[in-house]
Write a structure and sequence with these properties.
This protein has three helices and seven strands, in the order βββααβββαβ. It has helices at about 30-35, 40-45, 95-100, and strands at about 5-10, 15-20, 25-30, 70-75, 80-85, 90-95, 105.
Length: about 110
C-alpha cells in the first residue's frame, strides 16, 4: 500500500511539511510546489517554447512576489488541491507526485 499523509504543517509561510505513513517527513518550498503545478494550463506553459528574446514577459498580478499557500484540501483519497496566494487553485497534487517532490528531512 502506498504511503499517505499523517500530518501537515506549515513551519513558515514558504514551507509545507508533510509526515507520511511510511515514517518519512518531506518539506516542500511553496514556490517549488507552485512551479510544479500539474494542471493542464501549467503543463502547457512549461512545455511551450520560450518567447523571442525581444519580447518582454507579462507577469500576472501576484506572480512576482512571495507566494504562500492560502488553502489546501484533500480530493478523495489520492490528491490535494492547493490554493496559492497568486490566485491559482486548479492543480491536483496526487500523493504520488507529492512523494516525488520536496526534500526528505527525516
Amino acid at each position: 500500500m502506498a504511503a499517505f499523509p499523517t500530518k501537515l504543517e506549515r513551519p513558515s509561510d514558504d514551507v509545507l511539511r508533510i509526515a507520511w505513513s511510511d515514517g518519512s517527513t518531506r518539506e516542500y518550498k511553496v514556490r517549488e510546489l507552485r512551479n510544479a503545478c500539474p494542471c493542464a494550463t501549467c503543463r502547457e506553459k512549461r512545455s511551450a517554447p520560450p518567447p523571442p528574446a525581444h519580447v518582454l514577459p507579462v507577469i500576472p498580478p501576484g506572480a512576482g512576489g512571495p507566494i504562500t499557500i492560502t488553502g489546501m484540501r484533500p480530493t478523495g483519497n489520492y490528491a490535494y488541491n492547493i490554493q496559492f496566494s497568486d490566485g491559482h487553485n486548479s492543480g491536483l497534487y496526487t500523493l504520488e507526485l507529492l512523494l516525488e517532490l520536496g526534500e526528505v528531512v527525516s
